[in-house]
Amino acid sequence: MEEVKQKKKVILSGIQPTGIFTLGNYIGAVKNWAPMQDEYNCAYMLADLHAITVRQDPKAFREQTMTCYALLLACGLDPEKSIIFIQSHVPAHAELGWILECYTQFGELSRMTQFKDKSAKHADNVNAGLFTYPSLMAADILLYQADLVPVGADQRQHLELTRDIATRFNGIYGNVFKIPEGFIPKAGAKIMSLAEPTKKMSKSDENPNACISILDKPEVIIKKFKRAVTDSEAEVCYRDGKDGINNLMTIYSTVTGKTFDEITAEFAGHGYGDFKLAVGEAVAEHLRPIREVFDRLMADKAYLESCYRKGAEMASRISARTMDKVKKKIGFVL
Ligand code: ATP
Ligand code: LTN
Question: CA separation (Å) from 84 to 52, 78, 257, 291?
């Protein structure tokens, strides 16, 4: 019997080039992208169109985008295996983004918690792009007919909306879009701030002690963990109400592979000081190779450029197929 070759599933994800990735971005999202490259057809992008929903300084933004591209490769993304591209290099994203805005309801966008948070934080610039951000994210995903979207927990609501938009569009025009599933890690989907462990760790936090950047030097990482806010008990165990310790245990567990029970046993009879030091050292060690590869890549801009040009070409080819279908279905003259 002829063997039926199973088509590989498609993965798409993205990250905004708004700063050096934090340990939260890394554990919740980017760390999980590299291991998927053998099993799936993967496309990963820098969401620079999304990044301008917050004002960016042109020179810093350009440099930041190059830095973030090198970081993706340093985190193990391989341009020989995956499509690694910059969103604005593929005009179909903005084009389908506009179209999908016309299939997204005002009420749906008004309910998005990221919009509410960011418009409170940037009250002087509550622009239309900040509001329609999820329609563009839906376009990113649906253009590639993605099956799975690996993201942190804070993107769950945007993914649900993407599914609703796709289902609505398919309901009108027939089967145009694959309905994607989220792929949210069981542990580490929401890494919390080290200074305020009830708040998510975020690239744009003003307090440098609140978040670990994946390029922080080992001594800086260790110092920040030493200062991490915990509680007044002295027991290293995962329990409701111990937000700081729960967060440190999650971080330690994801970088060492140890379970919570193993961690509790390891630090039985020790104070928080020993535990914090161990977490700091484990994180510093885990991030060391990323920093080393990053330094090498940043010294070879020509290589980086050849990678993102190739990525844009491949992404354009795939997205053009979906774009064509969408335009025909809607009734645009082609
Ligand atoms: P900004 O502060 O500029 O809004 P951000 O740090 O929230 O940025 P994004 O670029 O919006 O980062 O997110 C990139 C990916 O990282 C997404 O998949 C998001 O879910 C994930 N992520 C962001 N913060 C965390 C966190 N604290 N814990 C786990 N995952 C996270
Ligand atoms: N909104 C995402 C970044 C992003 C994204 C995407 C993630 C833009 N387009 C498509 C997955 C798929 C965020 O992390 N804030």
Answer: 20, 8, 28, 19
* CA of 332 relative to ligand 2 center, distance in Å: 28
User: pTM of this prediction?
Assistant: 0.95
pLDDT value, residue 184: 96
Is the Cβ atom of 149 under 6 angstroms away from ligand 2? yes
Q: Is the CB of 25 under 6 A from ligand 2?
A: no
Same domain, 137 and 242: no
* Torsion 144-148-151-154 (CA) sign: positive
CA distance 81 to 279: 32
Distance CA 200, CA 193 (A): 5
Which alpha helices (DSSP H) does the chain contain, by range?
Answer: 23-28, 48-51, 58-74, 92-101, 106-110, 113-121, 128-143, 156-173, 218-226, 243-256, 260-266, 272-298, 301-330
Domain encompassing residue 82: 10-189+301-330
203 among known catalytic residues = yes
Question: What is the per-residue pLDDT for 3?
Answer: 54
- What lines the ligand 1 site, CB under 6 Å? 15-16, 18, 22, 24-25, 27-29, 151-152, 154-155, 189-191, 200-204
Q: Facing residues of 86 across strands?
A: 46
Both 37 and 176 in one domain: the answer is yes
pLDDT score at 204: 80
Q: Which residues of the chain have pLDDT under 70?
A: 1-5
Domain count within the chain? 2
Do residue 176 and residue 125 come from a single domain? yes
